[in-house]
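*** Query protein ***
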Amino acid sequence: MLKLSCRSLVPRRCVTGVVRFFTVGETGTGGAPPITKVSLSKPVSWLPQPVYATASTTPSATKVTTLENGLRVASEPKFGNFCTVGVVVDSGSRYEVAYPSGISHFLEKLSFGSTKNLSREQIMTTFEKLGGICDCQSSRDTFIYAASVESKGMIDALEVLSEVILRPQLLQEEITDARMAVTFDLEDLQLRPEKDTLLMEMIHAAAFRDNTLGLPKICPPENVMKIDRPTLFSYLKHHHTPSRLVLAGVGVDHDALVECAQKYFVERPAIWEEDTSLVGGRNDVDHSVSQYTGGIIREEADLSDVSLGPNPLPELAHLVIGLESVSHQHDDFVTSCVLNMMMGGGGSFSAGGPGKGMYTRLYTNVLNRYHWMHNATAYNHAYCDSGLFCIHASAHPSHLGELTQVLTREFAAMAGQMSREELERAKIQLQSMLLMNLESRPVVFEDIGRQVLATGKRLQPQHFMELIKKVSADDIVRVAGQMLRSKPAVAALGTLSRLTTLPDIEGALLHRNGQLPSRKKFTLFR
C-alpha cells in the first residue's frame, strides 16, 4: 500500500473546475511542468490569454448645434442602453412680473397632459412601452421637461416632448384639476413639519423684494382662481420660443438628435402659432436684472401642533439669514461654493462619519456645542445675475435670541482665519460631490442644458476641478468680506417673540473699526 504524507499532496484545479491532487514533482495534464517549476512572472502557457478592457476613444466633449429658428441642440455620448433627453427653457417665476404669480406652479401640474395630437393616456402608454419615465420641474429661472428611456426609443420620446412643450391643449377640465392640485400643495406646505420650502420662498422674497428672484415660485392662494387658459397660453407663447429652448441629450447620437429636433421642433409649428385666438393680451418677456434689497419677512405661526404624528418633533422656530452672493457666471462663483462646503451643516442627528460633512463649521461650532440647536445648514443659491448665501437654523422659540447670535457670529467668522486642513477638506468634498453627481444621466442632462442655456457651451467637469484646486484662503476671506458688506435678508417663521430686530442683526455683521469682532467677546445685544 502506497503511503503519501500530507506535504506530498498538492491541490491543483483542472480546466473543468475539479480539484485534483498531484504529488510534488508530478507533471500536470497537457505536459505542464512540475508545480515547483512554474514561474509566477510569466503567462501560463496552457491557459487562455486574458482580454483586458481598453479606455474608450469616443470624445466626451459636448456638441452644440444651433438650428435656423434659434433652437440649440446639445448632446454628449455615454455608454449604456438608456438615454436622457429633454428641454431646458429660459422660464420660471422670475419672469412673472406682468402675470399673476404662480403660472410656473400651474404649468408643472399641467405638464404631460393632452396635446393637439396625443391624449394623456397615449403619452403615458408610450413611456411605458419605452421602459422610461418623464418629469417636469420649474425653478425661479428655468423650466425643465425630461424623459429617460431606452436608447432605441429616443425618437418616440422626443416626439412626445415636442407635443407636450409646443402643442398642449390645456383643456378646462385639466386646468380645474391643476387648481385642485395647487390648492392641495398650499395646504400641505402649511401642515407638514418640514418648512424648508416655505422658508426658501420667504428668504428670496426678503432678499429681492418685489422683483425677479423675489417673486413667489409657489402660487399665492389669491391667484389660484385668477390663472386661466388665455393667461397660460400667453405666457407659453412669449417664453417657450425656440431661442429660449435648449434640447439636450445624454447617451444619444448628436446627428440623430439634430434630425429629430428639426422634424419635431422646427417643421411642426406651436399650437399658439396656428390658433392665435388662444392667446390673451399680455406683455412680452421681462428682461429686468435682479435687484438685491435685503430686509426681513416674519410670519407668526403656532408650530406646536406639527409635532403630532408617528415622528414627533419639538416645537421649533425657524430662522434664515442671507447675504448677497454672486451669479453662476461670476469669477468668484467657485469660491462661494467652496465656502458653502466649508460651512456645511445639517440636522442635530446624522448617522455616519466625516464623509457626511461632520467636520464642517456648522457641525463643529454650532450643532456639537449647543444641545438646543435642532438644525443649521448653509445654502448657496446662484442665478444668472445674482446669488444668495444663507444659513437656515431652527430651535425652540425660547432660544431664538441665542440662535440669532450664534448665526451672526458664524457669518462674521467666515472672513476670519481658517486652517489649511479645513480648506483642503472643503475643496476635496466639493470635488467629490461634483463627480459623484455627474455619474447620473439626468444630472449630466441638466448640467448640459443649464450651461448651454446660459453661455451657449458646456464646460467639462475637469475645468471646475481645476478651479476648485486654485481656491485659496485669501479668496475665501475676500468673498466672505464682500458678502458681509451687503444688507442681510432675514426670514423667520414660528413663535417670534424673542426674535432680534433687523438693525441689530445688521449691526452685528458689520466690521467694527476695520476688525471683525472677536468670537469670545462677540455679543449681539447692546
Notes: Residues 63-278 form a domain with the Cytochrome Bc1 Complex; Chain A, domain 1 fold (CATH 3.30.830.10).
